[in-house]
Write a structure and sequence with these properties.
The chain contains 1 helix and 11 strands; from the N terminus they run βββββββββββα. It has one helix spanning 134-137; strands at residues 2-5, 8-11, 19-21, 30-36, 44-51, 57-66, 71-76, 82-86, 92-99, 105-112, 120-131. Strands 1, 2, 3, 4, 6, 9 and 11 form a 7-stranded mixed β-sheet that branches. It has a 4-stranded antiparallel β-sheet with strand order 5-10-7-8, with no helix packed on it. The termini are far apart.
Length: 155
């Protein structure tokens, strides 16, 4: 995991047994291999608390693939699970934009959601949280100079 922003970087701390060499992973290095017995669904398999700036947009993402199909969701600050990201036989990258609100930290978690017993075996790689710049949020970006933000502009 790498969190890149003007505040610096944070590396994921995890027990070494969960990380294995994974040929073909997105980053070409190690990936978290999850051997999930999902009889107790919605128990997180990864989590980390990250220091963030208040009222700031961040891009949160990860890559998934499976040996056996699984579905992954995420939560922020112990809120409800969000998203429904299926694993595929090839690495697939997923990302969402989340806002920190008034918080100075985000507690991020990933969950397997199917509840299928002994069948959700999958890999997770390239987990990231990146502070977005004003240009990336497109709230005020106006590339043609007509005074209308790109996301509202029809020309």
């Amino acid at each position: 995991f790498r969190s890149t922003s003007s505040v610096g970087c944070a590396d994921l701390s995890v027990a070494p047994s969960g990380w294995v060499s994974s040929a073909g992973s997105c980053s070409g290095g190690n990936a978290l291999q999850v051997n999930a017995d999902c009889t107790i669904p919605l128990t997180h398999f990864w989590g980390q608390t990250i220091q963030v700036k208040p009222n700031t947009n961040y891009k949160f993402g990860f890559s998934l693939r499976h040996a056996n199909p699984a579905v992954v969701a995420y939560s922020v600050n112990n809120g409800p699970n969000q998203g429904s990201y299926p694993t595929t036989t090839n690495w697939t990258k997923y990302q969402v934009i989340i806002n920190s609100g008034n918080s100075t930290s985000m507690d991020l978690k990933l969950f397997e959601t199917t509840g299928a017993a002994a069948s959700a075996d999958f890999g997770v790689d390239d987990i990231f949280l990146i502070e977005m710049t004003q240009d990336e949020t497109c709230s005020t970006k106006d590339t043609d100079g007509d005074g209308i933000p790109n996301h509202l502009d029809l020309d």
